[in-house]
Amino acid sequence: MPHPRQARLRTVPPGGLPVALDGAWWPRTDDLPAELPSLLASVPHGWRGIASASVDGELWQPMPGRVLIGSHVVRLHRARVARDPHTICLLAPGHGRWDLLVVPPGTPPAEAASLMDRTVGGRL
After folding, report:
1. Is 40 within the bounds of a domain?
2. Which residue in 40, 44, 91 sits closest to 68, CA to CA?
3. Is 62 among the domain residues?
4. Bridge partners of 40?
């Protein structure tokens, strides 16, 4: 199995005040099952045991109900009530929940970098 590419991910530093978003992710495509392995390989070490990912909006192409990543099954859900169509919620039972802004794949690099910086800096 090829090693996944490094995800374009920025997370809020641990230990700060509570935040609305835990970071920002800029996937390369709109294929969530193809993008998820690199995202999960890139999340901070403390974000362990992610069992499901919830998304909303028109951003993602059709997807299965679950995906096998290594030997780990991750359930995929389309949220029925949108917090924001450009977010992904990662859930790890007993460990936590992490919400990330999803920068659409076709976003120009300068705009994507700005969105990610503002999200991590708490100014979004």
Report:
1. yes
2. 40
3. yes
4. none
